[in-house]
Specification:
Blueprint lengths: L7 E7 L3 E9 L5 E9 L2 H13 L4 E5 L5 H8 L4 E5 L13 H13 L11 H33 L14 H12 L20 H7 L6 H31 L4 H7 L8 H11 L9 H7 L8 E2 L2 E2 L11 H12 L6 H14 L1 H22 L5 H8 L9 H10 L8
Parallel strand pairs: 1-4, 4-5
Antiparallel strand pairs: 1-2, 2-3, 6-7
Helix pairs in contact: 1-2, 4-7, 4-9, 8-9, 10-13, 11-13, 12-13
Length: 412
């Protein structure tokens, strides 16, 4: 018989307009009785839910983390109850026996035996910082979309500026684009004074690239896009000021995370802190954190056969950031302990798996840095790669090791 961990607990099935709560009471003989009730998701009814739980001496609650619907419930019950948020796949009811009331009862039955894995929930200040950082990420995506639309307009107008300059949205290029939008009929204007001195050797190619016609419709469209882009840039600047002020209490942790290779931008460090928090005691080991972030291979074995072990979809926000940092650091020679590991894995498993391995390496380093309060120490990784001096290898094995680390061996 399964052990009863929570004699009095509540399972909540949350929807957009209402929720169904079911309290499970288990006596000393292991017999469970249930009490269900339905509440709307208006704040007044959620307060009634809190009072209903208190009147029944229930302080342990479990509910699905479905979309954003759980947040209002969590806000009201956070002060009086210990809440376990569960991924829907962990509390999915049996097909064919599924109603709102039965769902709540099923969640309560699972939870009373402590069979539900709770989702990581950082404290309120971290959650607020996370919300702002994710919005900043969305604004960056919006800006990229507008840049692509400007580029499409230029292509439609036969202006191939992107084929000549490295950055279409650099200062020189934007000066030329602004002049074209203000004077669309002036095809033979002198654009040389608008160029940066480093671009003077490309004058002939730029003249060929500007041989196009911007129609009035494209001109108006580009003006609207640029106005929207400027508005997004202003919103992003205001948001970043707010983020920096809210992250001041975590200045020490931000400085520690910034010592990790590839994390030079302060907003990258803030983004990592906003996702994983600063208290690493909630993760038993670094492997648990890496699994939560979705940079660890899955376990998928049956009948002695290993099936696909590709990484999970978890870490929608932190995983791309870690991959971006990993791609930056493996191109640099300043951190040979990371680059050599990347080259070693890349030769055997390919670029994508090697980058995920480096991302996992960076996240593991961040875990220990925040847990111990010490900056990144490259010597720890260099010592781990040093083989014991008592070990003997052949010349062929030494050549293979050197090649695996990216060296070209010249036989003399």
């Amino acid at each position: 018989m399964l052990k009863i961990v929570y004699p009095i607990c509540c399972g909540i099935d949350v929807h957009k307009k209402f929720l169904v709560a079911c309290i499970a009471f288990t006596n000393d003989k292991g017999v469970t009785t249930y009490k269900s009730s339905r509440f709307s998701t208006f704040t007044n009814d959620l307060r009634k839910l809190s009072g209903w739980l208190s009147s029944n001496s229930c302080t342990h609650v479990c509910m699905e983390s479905t979309g954003k619907y759980w947040i209002p419930v969590y806000n009201i019950l956070e002060a009086t109850c210990e809440i376990t948020l569960a991924h829907p796949k962990y509390v999915k009811a049996i097909r064919g026996k599924k109603t709102d009331k039965k769902d709540a009862k099923w969640i309560a039955d699972l939870f009373k035996h402590d069979l539900v894995a709770g989702s990581f929930m950082p404290p309120l200040p971290i959650r607020q910082l996370r919300d702002l950082m994710r919005y900043r990420f969305k604004l960056i995506n919006f800006k990229s979309s507008e840049k692509n639309r400007i580029q499409n307009c230029l292509t439609v107008s036969n202006i191939q500026l992107a084929n000549v300059v490295s950055d279409t949205f650099g200062k020189s290029s934007m000066r030329i684009i602004d002049y074209l939008l203000e004077n669309p009929d002036d095809k033979d204007f002198d654009f040389v004074p608008l160029l940066h001195p480093s671009m003077l050797d490309k004058v002939d190619k730029i003249r060929l690239a500007l041989d196009g016609v911007i129609t009035p419709e494209q001109q108006q469209k580009m003006n609207i896009i640029l106005q929207h882009y400027d508005g997004l840039e202003k919103c992003k600047s205001n948001l970043e000021s707010l983020i920096l002020s809210l992250s001041e209490p975590y200045a020490k942790e931000r400085a520690l995370v910034s010592t990790v290779p590839g994390i030079k931008n302060p907003f990258s460090a803030i983004a990592i802190i906003s996702e994983i928090g600063v208290d690493m005691s909630v993760f038993p080991t670094a492997k648990h954190l890496c699994s939560w972030a979705g940079v660890t291979p899955q376990n998928n074995e049956s009948a002695g056969k290993k099936h696909s072990v590709r990484i999970s979809r978890a870490g929608v926000y932190i995983k791309p950031l870690l991959v971006q940092c990993a791609n930056a650091v493996v191109k640099s020679d300043k951190h040979p302990e990371i680059k050599s590991r990347y080259l070693s894995i890349k030769k055997r498993r390919g670029h994508k798996r090697a980058i995920i391995a480096i991302a996992r390496m960076l996240l593991t380093a961040i875990y220990h840095i925040l847990k111990k309060g010490e900056p990144y120490n490259a010597e720890l990784y260099k010592k781990a790669e040093i083989m014991p001096q008592t070990r003997k290898i052949t010349v062929e094995q030494a050549i293979l090791i050197a090649q695996r680390h990216g060296y070209s061996v010249i036989k003399g």
